[in-house]
């Protein structure tokens, strides 16, 4: 793996999420591998988004595409991945396996490697939906770990019970 | 003498017993003739009475002739001289007493001889009356001594006879069944019919027979007998087996029982029955007590507002609970169902089992209806009262807040009004009332008839009695001539019948009034909106600074209070919670879980609530007892529960707090006092902990109470198989079989059913297969209800991307918040899909075509949406082509390209996806580079200024119009004297022509860069299209080629947008695959050969399928009208020719008028602030001119036209132009007129002229000419 790789994130808002506030699309800084034995790439990139909907259809997903320079110094895609934003409140850790589309032939593979123009998805959102994936071939490479801190509001009021019972606190009427 | 004594005795005795004898004797005498009318109320009383009465009658009948006193009696009665008595005795009763009952029973058979003797004695007595006084004492003495009589003997036979008359000895013989049942009724054995009859208690048959006989005589109504003819009996309460453990009393002698055995001494552990077996490791059982928090429902520190708030919250909870159960609705539905049932059974067409049973069921239904209605009314009233109370308390609270001028609680009640359909509501209300009245009336009528029947019967009796009375009176009257005083005795006693009052018939009006009154009382008035209270904590509490001193003191006091709980296990304190401050809303949150490692079986779990005020001592407020959890309740699954507690402490406070146990009042004068005790709720959960491997740490059941288990085993399921066993069907079934449960016992019915259902699953295999057989159970609402939900519908439509809802934001949470009109447009569109709207199209043919086109468009879009879901690799993945020489060469060439730094170039910009753009973000950049051959103003116009400088960007729908105007400055100074001091000019813009570019073109092309021909009207009055010869050299070549005017434009969008996905024009096809491949090849070759030429091989047909374009290619003849020029065309004989219908000229003329009218109205609409005058004269001139234009195809007539106009409208300054367009719809015509900006002239004395001419061609092809002009009168 190359020394540096930036990542692009995109919050896929599909379906019926009705409004979102905050950064929805962006590019993180370029990071390099750590010097210790773990050799991990750390971005520590905060994203703060608020979603609002009355219907859970099209629950938001985060789509990540990671780019990094290849041996010739061209920026090539290193992985795509997507995961749903957890729906229960609290702190969640998600490790997403990443993958890239494969070239269609050996020759293509060689030329793309040589020219630094590896196959990419036309739209990174493709990885957040199941449609049309059957025409592609992908290769897995690497993982990206995401940490979510989720706060929900009024889910219960809308009739969605996502939390465990014990987080609901005092039950029954808590009026004086 | 003897007889006299007895006589005297008889005289005195009745005197003493007068009230009784009097009472009895009257009916006794009258008895045989007629019985008194019996008051209906005392039937049983009468029954008892009549028994004795009858016996007496019999006796009497044997003795005396009925009714009349005997001769002696009469004689005695009138002649006897009585001693004055101390009591207020009268002659009459004494006389009567002669045959009084007491005497009869005393002396029985001996009476007649005595009577005979007394006759003699009387005579003697009369004679020796004077001597009587002297002999009185002696007489008695003599009597005492002298009477020597044989011992009274009554033969056994007589005695038996007597006893037989007095006593009733029921027979021991078995009573035949028919006697015990009503006539003509067969005994019915319920047991044979499969009904459960409990075992009857053991009773000896003789006893039973005696009882039956007795009951038959005493209770002739047979209500002691069941349908089976047997005496009624409860099932035997005795168990068939003793429940005490039996001693083994087999062959062994008592010695064996007393034999001693050695047992090792065991250590005494107190309360050993709660001890868990010693074999288990101690402390391996654990009880988790989760104390979540505590809330006071009353506390001494409650302010008045808090009291109301607590009340309100409680009422609201009650309301929610009631709302959830919704009993009123249930009962209303039930009532409806019952009414329907009655209706159907009343319906003569329904098959009836028998008239009798039918009538019976109807009666049952009716009584049920009555019951249900009563219940429903009660429920409705309760609901309404509750709502009223809630509103009342809330109002009180509001007024209290207003009065005290601060707010203590964040409680807020919102009353949501649900509008109701006034008319439907009223109808329903009225219908309900009418039904009710009808039913009540029916009931009352029935009741009335019953009463009437009763009345008639009793009236008959009364009449009979009256008659008898009258007869008696008459007789008495005769008698009363000597003793008038006796009359006073006569008034009828309590038993005498009163004249029965006829029952009053029910007044329907009164009934209706009552029903209405009740309905108004307990039901919502029709049309009154339904109120839904919603309690929230959205209010704000007044901060301390704004509160009066007493309130601040109260708040401080609350803050000084701390609360903690002690946990007591088997009455020993095991732990306690931390001490927590009481919050302002009187809640305490602990959130502590205590894990009790237990050793003893839990006997009691208690929480003690302690309160500490400041630094002073703590007080025990209350004790709360928690139930020991079931063994199946384990941590994590136990729900939070609330336990209430209350304290009897008395607290008086010197601030706003109302205290506890002391009366306080909301009123100013201290009335309506209220006393509340400290109370609250602890929310907690108690559960058994789970061990490491998920096994609950519960003491084994076997050790809990082994002593008496086995004994109960057979009788009680729970003790036999344990609580957990209840959920195990096999165990339960086994137990049921073992203990021989009676399957017919209703007590066991649910159990039996459960077992049969559960166990039958093993053997019963249905011979069909049902897919998703449990689906029904998982449907949380029915399909109809789901489709009725507006929210669901809205979400579905949005998800389906129906145009009206595609980007609908924020679908409301509740159905009630979704307005019905949201769907109106959509529904209208759906409705109109097949309805052809002729209004916008003027002629129906075009309307049909337009509709058809619209449908085709829709279906193609749908096809496209479907096709969008088929992906090719290129749609998803961008992959570089393997480079070929040309690309390589080009890139090499680019490197070698000469640098031209001064040549301006347009730079590439960053692309932006459309989704994060909002309104106003997109700008259209239009750069007008140059235009040429623009018509120029003719003299006498002034020197051109600002020519073609103005361009207006009008984004009407999807088209960009670029209109070219000539801006003219007119001097409008009316007075020459003003010219020196100021310039007063008016700017007029004259439309010259336009260029129309659809927005979608710009969007897809990203930029437009090129020269466009300007659409200029054929006639532009006052402008000449002659070429300006003073032009730069460079454009000569272009000019020579062109006829019209041109404009060079550069248009782009800022920021640059990512073009939307282009429609892939590959749809599925039914053409031959080989041919398709060949066309593709051909297309590719063509593209290589002619780079700029578009080559089409396939097109999409109406059903959205790819079809060869050649299928649509066929030589067609033009219409004959156009071939006037080529008269001898041989092609006319082609077999499949297009038939050209002539267009209806009248229709065209009509259309022409309509368009003219519409356009005139539109122009007036566009000038809302100005008067729009129409110059009719000019209009008619123009109308005449337009056909000429059509004929000449817009050529070479301009000069003539102008001359004519000048001649006719010489004193007007005229500016106008004809627009020529093909006709499809009215809308483009309107747009075209609008874009010319004719209406923008705001000169006060402007006049307008508008003429429309339509020239019809075959096949409804219409050529439309619109002449618009503005006229300003020259001065």
From TrEMBL, chain B:
Residues 52-264 form the DUF5523 domain. Residues 1147-1269 form the Centrosomal protein of 76 kDa C-terminal domain. It comes from the Eukaryota. One of its GO terms (cellular component) is ciliary transition zone. Signal peptide: none annotated. Keywords: Coiled coil. Residues 50-60, 91-101, 478-498 have a biased composition (Basic and acidic residues). Residues 526-700 form the CC2D2A N-terminal C2 domain. Residues 102-112 have a biased composition (Acidic residues). One of its GO terms (biological process) is non-motile cilium assembly. Residues 1-70, 82-120, 474-513 are annotated as: Disordered. The keyword Coiled coil applies. The keyword Coiled coil applies. Residues 321-382, 423-461 form a coiled coil. PANTHER family: CENTROSOMAL PROTEIN-RELATED, COILED-COIL AND C2 DOMAIN-CONTAINING PROTEIN 2A. This is Coiled-coil and C2 domain-containing protein 2A. It comes from Sciurus carolinensis.
